[in-house]
Protein 1
Amino acid sequence: MQNQYLDRLEAETIYIFREAYNKVSPLGMLWSMGKDSNALLWMARKAFFGKVPFPLIQLETGMELPEVYEFRDNLVRDWQLDLCIQ
């Protein structure tokens, strides 16, 4: 039962990503690098077969640990993300 519920949520999330991409221009996604936005980023990659077709926007505070910036930079490089830092 639990897997069916999670499968449905995943399918709905993918549907929403694809609909937004087709109907909203320009489209971008805020990315805080926290657990929730990382889960959303994972779903965006899944919705578009591994390639996120819109930019990610990070609001820079300069208050993150060096390891967080390293994590961010590695994901941007490895997943070929378009990152706008504001």
Protein 2
Amino acid sequence: MSTNRSLREAAAVASRLCAVCGMCCDGTMFQLVRMQAGDSPAELIKLGMRIRRKGVELHMEQPCAGLRERCCTIYNSRPTRCRAFYCQQLLLVEDHSLSEAEAKAKIERTRCLSERVRALIGQTGYREDGAPLQEQFDRITSLPVDPTLEPEQVEVRRELEKTMQELKTIL
């Protein structure tokens, strides 16, 4: 098989898997993407990205403002780190350790856990503010629950912590 054909096939698999996933951009996996030499924060800001300074470094905030229905709307202008990122599922499919169908099944299971965490966060009364999933979880779990005043929240919190741990283990 030619190298060009192998590259085209790998790109096609990546495209299909990314289209059912999007977790590297939706705030599930990452909170920030560090800008690299050659990235243009000014251009990314024009495209609607949220850029912030952390120390001396610039970062693009997650969830990515360019993500729409699991598709990148800034694909040709995306930052260097986004261009270089290959998730574990893509790597396993490329080295034939996992079939594309198995990778899709794992992605679906992970997405279900992510959605369950989001639903549980909603049950706590926390209002979605566009923050990454881990940040929302940290805010909620940093507040104590008084079982005498909020008995229903005890089980919600327990389920949230258990589900988030399961999600972290998979990620």
Protein 3
Amino acid sequence: MRAVTSRRREEVERLVQAHQASVRGFLAYSGCPASLLDDLVQDVFLSVLASPFEDRGEISTAAFLRTVARHLLIKALARARRETLLEDPVSAESSWVEFERGDGGAGYLAALRECLAKASPRTQEVLRLRYAATLPQAQVADRTGLTEAGVKSILVRGRKALREC
């Protein structure tokens, strides 16, 4: 393994700070299982560190990192002998670019927060526990006093309402 220069390390640290949230969001949007998400985000930046990389601006760099992330996701899913959750990689790429356009997705996230505020307190709690706290449905059920089927039903209806909103 070759030694990493301090300049190279600083370059990768800057890339991580600038693009980690976007890479993580892209992988989650692309269907990456939560159990793989942190590892794949780390692997994206390790692969940049291990290979020659030329920074060609924010947009090109972001596109390059998404490409690396997509390939790592596909390889990880194939390795796990699962069907690829990324049905249409081109569509996922274009949708993500649209999501981040201009404000890095802040407008979409603000709209999502407004829609979430309109949901019932129970729906908000279930969605928060499942997605913000990343608890499995069984633990969400335990914490809320619902059955697992009840949690699943609230999640399905809640996601549908958020999509429609």
Protein 4
Amino acid sequence: TFAADKNLDGSWVMESVTRDGKALDNLKGATRENKGDSYTITPEKGDKITGKWKVDAEKKTVDIMPDAGTFKGKTLLGIYE
């Protein structure tokens, strides 16, 4: 069931992001723009983050594949609500 979920297309405000149990405050309040299997995150400060993603809407899980930076070439596993 992995696919881009058209219900998630559009602009979203990121209320919280955690990694390894720690809050990533630099992404709180960032805008996430979803379009199909692509995303752009625009933090209030700092550079934009782009990449691809796959969603399992049934399980509310997401695989995130950044285009650049520390996690380029890696798949980040996540959940959403």
